[in-house]
Amino acid sequence: MKANPPSRGLLVVVGGHSRGVGKTSLITWLLPHLKPSPWVAIKISRHRHGNGAGFSISEECQTSSRFLSAGASRAYLLRAADEEMADASAWVNAQLEAGNCVVAESNRLPRFLRPDLLLFVIRPEIADWKDSSAECIASADALIFTAPLNAAPAVKPVACVQIHHYPNRRVFKAGIHEVLHL
Known about the structure:
Layout: E1 11-16, H1 23-30, E2 39-45, E3 56-58, H2 62-69, E4 74-79, H3 85-97, E5 101-105, E6 117-122, H4 133-139, E7 142-148, E8 155-162, H5 176-179
Parallel strand pairs: 1-5, 1-6, 2-4, 2-5, 6-7
Antiparallel strand pairs: 3-4, 7-8
């Protein structure tokens, strides 16, 4: 008798207009509220910390330890240049096909995989906007505005503007406003 294949996992993507706007902090806020659990958390960055070629996957970084502390079952840093994103996205898709629910920090992933929920973080006092922001914000289900906490680099969500109806309500135990305490 054949075992049933796992059902495809959910994908939540958190993008943002710049570095330091609170994307990682938002994911750490969301992880305890995401259902079904457990969730795999992935930060996707084009920044290289070495001379590696091709996309790379690491489980050891400051961000992955923050994700694990917040409740992720596994956490990864995936580094990929633009020309490597198709292969990197295939790796994320394999996680989803294996039945893992994934929360990813990335502006570029939605070009390749359609998220069940796409949140876009804005910190108004940061004027810098990444080139990848335009496409990501145009597809966002909600905009999350953040403000600094007393203990940098953490930020807190202060407002949420829902753009679309949430495409998959089973992502949260409660609505996003309740999760963020807004």
